[in-house]
Design a protein that fits this description.
The chain is mainly alpha-helical. Helices cover 66% and strands 6% of the residues.
Length: 231
């Protein structure tokens, strides 16, 4: 069965974000195909997608390589997120469904419970899920896609410190959902703008500070276990 290119793209992107491939390192089709246990065709398609997203660049005489963003490019991403997330919340207030609200309220409830217990690992994943769901609530595939790309790139470029007061952070999440539920786009925009401004202050550039990357695995010769691609 042919594994779809978008699944291979997700796997390569996740490894780039996790630091498996260093900035500037080569990404050869043959070794990537071997690592992920696929043919070179979906790898080639995935690299084209990742180049369009800005994770990969094609260099003369070198081929596909992991991109090397500048500090200014990284800073621009935070500014873009600061502008687009409030817009997304305002759109969500007008276009959300009851299903979206149910998920958002459930995440807020879990987030507030975990925040009181001080479980930072759970809070990180719940926060990502919250913002993904809020983006999907906009009813705009284009805006949802752009916000997802921003989150991926910011996770790649920045280390994020835990909120000083996670309870307050999740209280803000709850206030955003309340505004979205009431259809109050302006309040949703304002609360999200404040929340985003506070959260972005906790971001620290990885490559400017020496990095906090996991140990690199350069072009492994062995296929990795990718159950999500096998179904």
């Amino acid at each position: 069965m042919r594994i779809p290119a978008h699944s291979v793209c997700t796997a390569i992107r996740d490894d780039i974000v996790a630091g498996v491939y260093e900035r500037g390192s080569r990404l050869t089709e043959e070794l990537l195909a071997r690592r992920y246990g696929v043919s070179r065709v979906p790898v080639r398609e995935a690299l084209r997608t990742l180049e369009a997203e800005g994770f990969v660049v094609t260099r003369r005489h070198a081929g596909a390589c992991v991109a090397e963003p500048t500090e200014q490019e990284a800073a621009d991403l935070l500014e873009m997120r600061g502008l687009l997330e409030p817009l997304g919340a305002a759109r969500a207030a007008q276009r959300r469904t009851e299903a979206h609200l149910k998920v958002l309220r459930g995440l807020v409830r879990l987030g507030q419970e975990r925040a009181k217990r001080g479980n930072s690992d759970d809070l990180r994943s719940l926060g990502s899920w919250f913002h993904e769901t809020l983006a999907q609530s906009t009813g705009s595939p284009a805006l949802t896609s752009i916000l997802a790309q921003l989150r991926h790139k910011i996770a790649w470029m920045y280390a994020v410190e835990a909120p000083v007061d996670p309870v307050e952070s999740w209280t803000e999440h709850g206030a955003i959902v309340d505004a979205v539920a009431r259809g109050d786009g302006e309040r949703a925009r304002a609360i999200t703008a404040l929340h985003t401004e506070r959260s972005l202050s906790a971001h620290r550039l990885r490559f400017a500070a020496g990095g906090e990357r996991t140990e690199r695995v350069r072009n492994s010769q062995h296929p990795v276990n990718m159950p999500s691609l096998r179904h």
